[in-house]
Amino acid sequence: MGLQDGGKVIGEAVVHGAGTIVNAIACGKGSAFGVDLWTRARVELTDEAGVVEGRILNDPEEDTKLIRVAVRKVLEKFNVSEYGARVITESNIPVSRGLKSSSAAANAVVLATLAALGKKMDDVDAVLLGVEAAIEAGVTVTGAFDDACASYFGGVVVTDNEKRSILRMEYFPEEFKVVILVPSEKIRKSGINVRRMKAMRSLVEAALELALRGDYLRAMTLNGLAYSASLGLSPEAAVRALEAGAVAAGLSGTGPATVALVPPEKMDDVVDAWSQFEGNVMLADVNNKKAQVSVWRGEP
């Protein structure tokens, strides 16, 4: 496959976001579920060996290191040194709010690069390549294997992030709406106090046990309370959502977003309850669909 003839080789992938059930930072194991927010990556291979240019259309000021590292990881995996790439990503997942924007971006760029190269990988191996890229780019504490799997496969997963193994994976009921409170501030992984979060290990392990039994709703709420306390963030939004009829609510990731699972008939009540809080309210659905990939050769 050569580019010398002037033909473009473009791969595209669409990957979805996720919400936290159990954050893995405290105990090394975690759980997440798919949310139908999305990230799209388009990768065009070039003849400029080793040169990767990245653009994030929805947030142009964001660092593109994750994009560059993810492309390089794929090229290195297949010992391809003669290509560079131009990468464009766009997304409706708010960045650095705990909604798995980095996991979705890493997955999307890896898959789009594979498509552009005409290569295939085992699904979990592709996820792991994205996890490695996220670690190298400094956008994750644990590698976020749980988030990456929920983003890639959809549904709900429970994972061992240290061993990079999937402990449980299944369809997540779509009967609930996903209501998300997104504050304006961002929380960077580089600025969080991991020691304080690990002090909550026993509570988080209790949440994990619930998740391993399939009791995801209680796991999500308990996890959110534990991490809100350790991060010094108020759990008031989660409590108000539960009061208004949510079946589960809690901090997602390291925040500051709060995610609630809500019966459709209670959605307006939860949105009203959150009207007093600073930030935007987003409405989404549970996602059970796997990432989608396409490729063009020549002009798209």
Compact overview of the structure:
The protein is α+β, with helices and mostly antiparallel strands and 300 residues long. It contains 9 helices and 11 strands. The chain has 2 domains: 174 residues, Ribosomal Protein S5, domain 2, CATH 3.30.230; 109 residues, GHMP kinase, C-terminal domain (Alpha-Beta Plaits).
Keywords:
300 residues; alpha+beta; Ribosomal Protein S5, domain 2; Alpha-Beta Plaits; 2 domains; four-stranded antiparallel sheet; 11 strands; 28% strand
Question: What is the element layout, followed by pairings?
Answer:
Layout: E1 9-22, E2 29-46, E3 52-56, H1 65-77, E4 84-91, H2 101-117, H3 123-137, H4 145-153, E5 156-160, E6 165-170, E7 177-182, H5 194-198, H6 201-212, H7 216-231, H8 236-243, E8 248-251, E9 258-262, H9 267-273, E10 280-285, E11 292-297
Parallel strand pairs: 3-4
Antiparallel strand pairs: 1-2, 1-11, 2-4, 2-5, 5-6, 7-9, 7-10, 8-9
Helix pairs in contact: 1-2, 1-3, 2-3, 2-4, 3-4, 6-7, 8-9
In DSSP terms, counting alpha (H) and pi (I) runs of 4 or more, how many helices?
9
The number of strands is 11
Through-space gap between termini: 17 Å
Label the overall shape: globular
Into which percentage range does the β-strand content fall? 25-35%
Fraction of residues in helix: 25-40%
Instruction: Extract low-pLDDT stretches.
Output: none
The main pleated sheet reads as: 7 strands, mixed
Q: Radius of gyration in whole Å, from Cα? A: 19 Å
